[in-house]
Specification:
This protein is mainly α and about 110 residues long. Helices cover about 85% and strands about 0% of the residues. It has 3 helices and no strands. The termini are far apart.
């Protein structure tokens, strides 16, 4: 799962845990709202620390991007893009040529 999903789950989970405890502990609505907000923030902070520790200790062992391969791929795609751009320019010029010939035929026929 992505870290964003854990963050979202922590907010929802913290909210409902805080709501359950505040309903059990307090009778005044103001205290219920405050306790729910504090619990939600607390659970969210705990999950932020857990995700940070995960990235700090475990995620650093993943292989990094290979720069040479990435540069070769980017160069290949750049060349392909240039080819497509030149082809598009030729097609555009061909269409403009056809349109101008049709306009000349119409003006000559008049």
């Amino acid at each position: 799962m992505k870290p964003d999903n854990y963050m979202s789950f922590s907010i929802v989970g913290g909210f409902f845990i805080g709501l359950a405890f505040s309903i059990l502990k307090f009778e005044r609505p103001e205290f219920m709202v405050i306790w729910t907000i504090i619990t939600t923030i607390g659970v969210h902070m705990i999950v932020i620390v857990c995700i940070a520790l995960y990235f700090w200790f475990l995620d650093s062992q993943k292989p990094h991007i290979k720069k040479d391969k990435l540069e070769k791929n980017l160069e290949y795609y750049r060349l392909e893009f240039d080819k497509k751009e030149k082809e598009t320019a030729k097609i555009s010029a061909f269409l403009k040529n056809i349109e101008s010939e049709q306009e000349q035929e119409i003006t000559n026929a008049s």
